[in-house]
Amino acid sequence: MTYTLMVLISDVWVDVLPKSNNVSWTSSADTLSVELTFDSLSDIVEGTHIMLKIDDKMTFTGIVVRKVKKKLSYSYACYDWAFYLNKNETIIQFNKVTADVAIKQLCTQFGIKCNCVKISYIVQDTAETTVLSTSSSTSNTTSSSSLVAVAKKYLGVKYLWGGTTPSGFDCSGFTQYVFKQLKINISRTTYTQVKEGTYVAKANLQAGDLVFFGSVSLPHHVAMYIGGGNVIQAPHTGDVVKITPLKYFSDYATARRINVATTTAKAATKTVAVATTGAYAGGYANGLYKDWINAYARQNGYNPNLIAGIIEVESSFDCNSKNASGHVGLGQFDYTSAKEVGLINSSGDHRTDPRLSIQAICQLLTVKYKATGTLKKAIMTYGENTNSYYNKVVAATPGHDVGAVTSGKTGTVTATKSTTETTITTNISKIYKDMTLSAIIDDILNNATLEKGTKYIKEMISDILYIRVQAEYKIFPKFMLNEDLIVNSSIENMKNTVIATGSDDKSTKILATVSDPINIKIYGGLQEVLTLDLAYDIAHANNVATNFLKLNNKIFHDAPLSITVIEGAEEIRANRFIGLIIESMGLNGWYNIKSCANVLVNGQCKSSITLEW
After folding, report:
1. Cross-strand partners of 26
2. Domain total for the chain?
3. 3-state class (DSSP) for residue 263
């Protein structure tokens, strides 16, 4: 990566990096500003415009705020344009305006540009499918037996973390190696193997199936089922590959079946590109979740429009939907079916997670299809098991064509970030007095977060203030770990009871109380009292209290991450999500950057990041 540190001197941009060192920049989820500090031989006047670029991409732009003169050099502290939001106080009144309008009105008073945006990732899927000649056939029984026979050859081989050969195996290295001996390629890690093949219920396990332990989203171990209630596994350091009864495992999560019958066929195969047909283009809920619907439907061999139709019938695209029978989420999963497809596991109840729910809808539909033999019966048994339910799904399916089941398609999937203007419909009616602009915006966004159950944040990029959902901004840097990761967990900030009160100058009364009795029994009572305006009705207060509970009724985790950045350093800052797969620490997913400190050392960017989830 190339770096430039540009200073505006007499209307000319000058690179002062060759005369500077100790360049670092920091950001935190708790503060809006990004701070840049450096030492230099150059004498720069306070208030001078300055910018840092990495690979000609803007990383920081702002002004010199503090200057320290030393004997032979100068030290500088610079802040981005959020400096003005943090320093200016004002008095302003809002009367029943939406949150986005309120923030824009506030910013306009001080000449600050503001955009309320939705960030999305456009999925480009170059799908592929494997075409077999009609003469290719190998029985699943024979292939499964072959897998077990190969696996047993390595009984007694020592466990070796990271091992992928008979010199030593770790758990996923062992399963990958066994499949490879039969010319079946599966991925390397537990976290990726759990996404391969098709879901198998525990009661339907067959020899050769992969079984996973921990949770569906974060499995910590994989083994191979060999029949008779037993698995073969590479267990842990100090042990060897051995056969173990499955009943000895207390944290069984799920199982996957790799299609060994077609994969091991002797006839010639070829891979060809296929057209993406039946793509769900949106329509319901303004196209909400369409990328996930398209991706998971194709992966499982369904017309994406069918999955959209099921979601519309079940929940009208409301991921928090819950009916009187306790069915929850986009796919209206009850407790039993949610456990079956891994939506409820040791890490919690994920039925309101839209991505996981869409994936689970496809998985459960596959289970129903295999049990009934036809797509129509699969759709019927997904719901009420009636023709009436099937007809409702057909009517709700865009184009009214549920399509047919095809082989799942794989291929290259890339994501391109795009932003679109959006609104935050939370109404704001309040007088703000003697508060900074930044604090006022924080209060407005906190109200929106509690009403919507989705965390909103502010971020200054160049001279524009952006308002967005926290989890929407994902970054994809390339980096190397500098040291082992540690993960901290705490219940210090957990809240399992929330009381919403209303108050004015004369009185205070309780409007709503929500709690989690199970969590209280485990951790004890941890209570929060929210003070709302008496104008809040009971339903509104209950919604606010419920959303606060949803956001805070959990064990909080954080992890310091020390990395050397190879590419993408300009994107690393607080309140953005970074994707990680670190098998040894059970990390597999997207994690929010709580804070980060970046420093240039000998032309390399070193980052100290704190993640939170």
Report:
1. 35, 597
2. 6
3. helix
